[in-house]
Amino acid sequence: MNSRLKAAATLVLAACVASTSFASDATPPAKKSHKKAAATKGPSVEDQIQQLRQDMQGQINQLKEDLANKDAQLKQAQQQAADAQAAAAKAQQATSDQEQAASQNTAAVTALQSTVTDLKANASSLAITVSDESSKIRKEMESPEALHYKGITLSPAGSFLAAETVWRQGATGGDINTAFTGVPLDHADAAQMSEFQGTGRQSRLALKATGKLASATLTGYYEMDWLGTGITSNNNQSNSYVLRMRQLWADARFNNGWDFSAGQGWSLATETTKGLQRTSEILPSVIDPQYTAGFVWTRQYGARVTRDFGNKFFVGISAENAETLNPAGANLPTNLLIGSPGTGGGLYNSTANYSFNLTPDFVAKLAVEPGWGHWELFGIGRSFRDRIYPTAAGATPYNDTVWGGGVGGGFRGPLLNKKVSIGLKGLWGQGVGRYGSSTIADVTLRPDATISPLHGFSALSTLEFTPTPRLSAYINYGGDYIGRNWAVDPVSGKNVGYGTYDTDMSGCNIESTTGGSFSPSTPAKCKGNNKDVQEFTAGYSYNFYKGPKGTFRYGLQYALFRRDLWSGNGGVTNPGGGAKGTDNMFWTQVRYYLP
Asked: Are both 173 and 106 inside the same structural domain?
């Protein structure tokens, strides 16, 4: 600004000097007036310049003063603008703060409303939960599903009261439990008479105790009924002593898949439905406590170890109580010791026979559940031993040991949205008769009294229907078979062993008579060994009620039996000598199961 003022002043001064020069260069006036002009002489150029300078200086000063005022006004305007801008920024910030505050308030209000809504929902849910818990507590107090004692859960599930009947076309002289090898031959006396029996002895009491640890589940189980009989209790298949102990075992199942168990229960060879776990055994849906022909099982002492691999693959081994069914056959030697009846002072039945077992029975099993059905493969290893007393003079007694066993397998799977189930299971081997439901025979003897295990086969097919939750029906067909096993005694020339061809079978198809008058007795000339027992079974059960108060059930079962003997020498009246027994049987049941 100062430089522009200086330039303006310089221009004004130059203009004044120029005008003075022009004035001095003008044409001089006439002489007659020269004096007059001299008399009236004005200020000199220097004075004018000085005056001009003063004027210019005044103007410059005025311009400086104006400029200073303008600078002051400009600064004031700038300050005002800055203040206004600051005020605007402050106002904008305040507006932004207010908007943010308003947004926060809106969010807070929204959150508060959501919280209030959640509180209402939680309050409602809490009220429902409290109501449900109250109902649950009231239900557990009034009708508990299990009892709790020091961290252990006690449950009577599996207990029931039963009222059951059986009618047989041919009498067996038995109760509701059928002796399959006791089915009378067609021409036997008992086959001409029917029988009816009613009983509540299959009623059952059960108690399961469960304790859960961080790494394992501990279980103890006891199950009993009244189907035992003191004079017939034995170790053959179910170890059923009075008061009949069906099952009594303890189990430790770890979270990593290992499972350790010991006590009396179902053999590892028995079919299961959930891996290899105890209590998941699946039994034929029948009323007969002996189940059905072809069913593979025992219920005895056993210690087992199993392993679960991801709920898909399962393996297990067990050592189980052994028992050799007495050697069966014709013309068997007697110079041996294989067992004895129970003795006084002991706990075994004095009218039954108990083998002197070398080892327990060993069972190994694997199961697979790939997504459809349950599949099994198992093997059984058995030892048989007797002590032989040779008849030759001076011969020394010695122990004879023979090994036997078998392999088996099966499957069970659902169809039609689990309304139909199909299953098939079998066992084949040497000396496995006690594992078939008919318990026909395990071994026979050679002429020198050495043991020879019998070839056996058991199989069972099952078809089950569940059209409604209340109704279930079933069809079973199965059988147990024992093959011939004999040799010729070089001394007597007779057949020795099982299913011999020289057995007199001439009386099998004749009802006994003596001297022309009727004399009831078992045919004297019909001593052939059992070849097989076959059974066809059909039945249903209907739940009149199933709920928190338990289950009230009615059931009906029909069975057709056929028992065949090995043919022998039938003589003139009966060439070939084959004999059979057929029987039709019906069962009814009414049961109340504890919840």
From this structure: no
Number of residues that this document lists for the chain: 595
Which one-letter DSSP state was computed for residue 454?
A: P
Cβ-in-10-Å burial (0-12, 13-18, 19+) of 517 comes to exposed
In order, the DSSP letters of 54-98 are HHHHHHHHHHHHHHHHHHHHHHHHHHHHHHHHHHHHHHHHHHHHH
pTM of this prediction?
Answer: 0.75
Q: Which residue did the predictor score with more confidence, 413 or 55?
A: 413
Are 205 and 279 contained in the same domain? yes
d(CA 482, CA 566): 10
- State how many domains the chain has: 2
Domain-terminating residue out of 106, 121, 136? 121
- On whether both 252 and 326 belong to a single domain, the answer is yes
Whether residue 460 is contained in a domain is answered as: yes
CB atoms within 10 A of CB 404: 24
Pick the closest to residue 589 from 160, 157, 158, 159 (CA basis). Answer: 160
| 529-587 confidence digits (pLDDT tens) | 999 999 999 999 999 999 989 999 999 999 999 999 998 886 555 555 678 999 999 99
334 strand-pairing partners = none
Inside any domain, residue 128: no
Relative orientation angle of helices 45-142 and 2-24, to the nearest 10 degrees: 160
Q: Which domain holds residue 583?
A: 147-398+405-593
The tokens for 46 are 């220097």
Helix, strand, coil percent content, the chain, rounded in steps of 5? 25, 40, 35
Residue 534 vs residues 179, 461, 551, 560: alpha-carbon distances, Å = 13, 12, 33, 8
Does the residue 474 lie in any domain?
yes
Sequence-distant (≥ 6) Cβ neighbours of residue 360 within 8 angstroms: 319, 320, 321, 322
**Domain shared by 274 and 421, yes or no:** yes
Retrieve residue 331's tokens.
């013309």
CATH number of the structural domain spanning residue 207: 2.40.160.10
Query: Mapping DSSP to helix (H, G, I), strand (E, B) and coil, where does residue 265 land?
Result: strand
